[in-house]
Amino acid sequence: MHQRRRLILAAVTLLAAALLIVSWPGAARAQAGGAFGLDALKPSPFEFEPKDARIVSDATAEVDFAFSIQPGYHVYSNQISVKVKSPADVSLAEFVKPPPKRKHDPILKDDVEYYEGTVAFTARLKIPTRSALDGQTLVLNVRYQGCSPDTCFLPETRTLEFRFGPGGAEGTGGGASCPLPVPSAPPGPNLNSSVLVSGRKQVSGEQPW
């Protein structure tokens, strides 16, 4: 009789342990989702679209792109920058930004400048000769950090491609790198790691530009 009770107790204990192991990943995901307030499968609220590419002079070219920010999100104007990835002999001369919106942030206790909605940007480029981009593809990296009302997400870099026409003719945007899902949730062990920056939560684990 005692032996049977011990066997039953052992079986119940093993069953409870198995159920705990199976349910743990789901609980962890739920906790992570609650921490960031976003579904792990939700697409990025920040989208880029390459537009026109043109040769302006023997030493200058320009490319345009649109940055679409979904309602409820924003990007501070000082948190977006660009860098030419290729060709190697082309460099950034000026990043032309439109006038940002301005408001007083009660958390930061200061006036801030930001973008929301769809915004157009232009990268003015320094080229060695007019023929340097003749029929070529220019690759531009865009670095930005998006925010919701209470959280600033991990900075991201997107890659945009612009194709220049032959003989310096005006070209078009080629494509943009695929958006990463949920910019607020860094991969790996930092999933639940965040710090409070100036009263606003910012996801930790920022990567260098």
Describe the structure.
- By secondary structure, this protein is of the alpha+beta class.
- The protein folds into 2 domains: 1-36; 46-203, Thiol:disulfide interchange protein DsbD, N-terminal domain (Immunoglobulin-like, Sandwich).
- 17% of the residues lie in helices and 45% in strands.
- It is built from 1 helix and 13 strands.
- A 10-stranded antiparallel sheet has the order 4-7-2-1-11-10-8-3-6-5, with no helix packed on it.
- The radius of gyration is 24 Å and the shape is flat.
- Residues 19-40 and 178-209 have low confidence and may be disordered.
Question: Tags for this entry?
Answer:
single chain; 209 residues; alpha+beta; Immunoglobulin-like; ten-stranded antiparallel sheet; three-stranded mixed sheet; 1 helix; 45% strand; flat; disordered C terminus
- Strand fraction equals over 45%
Classification by helices and strands:
alpha+beta
State the share of residues found in helices, binned by percent. 10-25%
- Which word captures the global form? flat
Secondary structure layout plus pairing:
Elements: H1 2-36, E1 46-55, E2 60-69, E3 74-86, E4 91-96, E5 101-105, E6 110-115, E7 117-126, E8 137-147, E9 151-152, E10 156-163, E11 171-176, E12 194-197, E13 200-203
Parallel strand pairs: 9-13
Antiparallel strand pairs: 1-2, 1-11, 2-7, 3-6, 3-8, 4-7, 5-6, 8-10, 10-11, 12-13
In short:
The chain is α+β, with helices and mostly antiparallel strands. The protein has 1 helix and 13 strands, in the order αβββββββββββββ.
